[in-house]
Amino acid sequence: MGAIQALRGTRDILPEEVCYWQSVEATARDVFSRAVYQEIRPPIFEQTALFERGIGEATDVVGKEMYTFTDRGDRSITLRPEFTAGVVRAYIENKLFAQGGVQRLWYIGPAFRYERPQAGRQRQFHQIGMELIGSSDPRADVEVIALATDLLQSLGLKSLKLDLNSVGTGEDRQNYRSALVEYLTPYQEELDPDSRDRLTRNPLRILDSKDKRTQEIVKDAPNLLDYLGDTSQKHFEQVQQLLKDLGIAYQINPRLVRGLDYYTHTAFEIQSDDLGAQATVCGGGRYDGLVEQLGGASTPAVGWALGMERLILLLQQLQMASPSHPDFYVISKGDRAQNSALILTQKLRALGFRVEFDLSGSAFGKQFKRADRSNATACLVLGEAEIESGTVKLKWMATQEEDAIAQSQLLAMSDELRQRMVR
Ligand code: ATP
Ligand code: MG
Predict the structure, then answer these.
(1) Whose CB among 12, 125, 248, 382 lies 3.0–4.6 Å from 337's, allowing a Cys bridge?
(2) pLDDT higher than 90, residue 324
(3) Is domain 15-168+228-318 given the CATH code 3.10.450.50 in the classification?
(4) Domains in the chain: boundaries
(5) Pocket of ligand 1 from Cβ distances under 6 Å
């Protein structure tokens, strides 16, 4: 019988890669906890209607990419294609607003979209993100952008670009939409099929079409920024000034849009030149209309989501993490020696050391080779002779320096040993 393989668009994160994931997770926890963001863990599947309302039926995600199925109770269920809708649902359902002030939330976990798999694009992928709910202040926009750049910088990624735009208010966009449709309609036949379809459903999304001819046409289209009202203009200027004050470089990209009515003001993306076609690592913005759209009271909010696969591709290019290695590698041969080696191993682990126990009972030479490969800082050796004398041989791998010491003494000198561990 043939072996079963992982589904297309999914992949195993193997031990050699997992150190990168752990390093991103640990850094995110550290950066976010310093900003006093709380982690939230919404369910992986939700009612399909949540995403239809929370992402919008005119988007690619809802229109083409969702994993939707009917469960045994005849409900329409969808695997989350992103987190924001679920987080906002949780905010409303659990009355997190009742705690007063703003809610600062972050999340991490898998999301699912039916897409054509390629480097940095999968069907099960992972996101880290944050939502700041309850403030319309431009400082909130800048706080979340600054925390995204903090995270990326703490991971050692420096050559990333921040694209910034404002999509104004719903009213600003209404005016702009008319102007855009008026400009594009004469070119209708030349647009790519997706864009032609969007001309009536969601014309703003045409601005970020990847099609060459469409891009040429769009180049001379009216500029969204010229349609911002006074309030929007002021918000956008404040965001830019604060970014400058914080020393965060950005460039304005008037074609960076989110097409739906509940998006307002700031939109941004963080990109890397080192990722090929899937250049966007992080995307976000303000969504003042979403909480209301999902049945809550009108509440402003801003947030972003970052694709972990793309981030990890970048870290791997820079070789920014290395797997952990043991402090001690424990070698033993003979029944009694192997038993007492297991006991010693457990005692050292209880003292906080990372200890790998060789189970093979094979020749000492073979076990020493494996100890070398494990990159352990030191080896502990137990044979018949050590059992007779109640000792253990301690060998430092870097210097080959070797000592026989009583087992009880080894445990008593744990502080001194800890100092010598290379981590
Ligand atoms: P793209 O234009 O690359 O499809 P998007 O606009 O659909 O991105 P968002 O919904 O803004 O993406 O999600 C935020 C981030 O999640 C993206 O910037 C990207 O890093 C990551 N992401 C989105 N879809 C995938 C996917 N299928 N596989 C891996 N990462 C993804
Ligand atoms: Mg997409």
Answers:
(1) 382
(2) no
(3) no
(4) 15-168+228-318, 328-421
(5) 82, 113, 115, 120-122, 125, 127, 278, 280-283, 305-307, 309-310
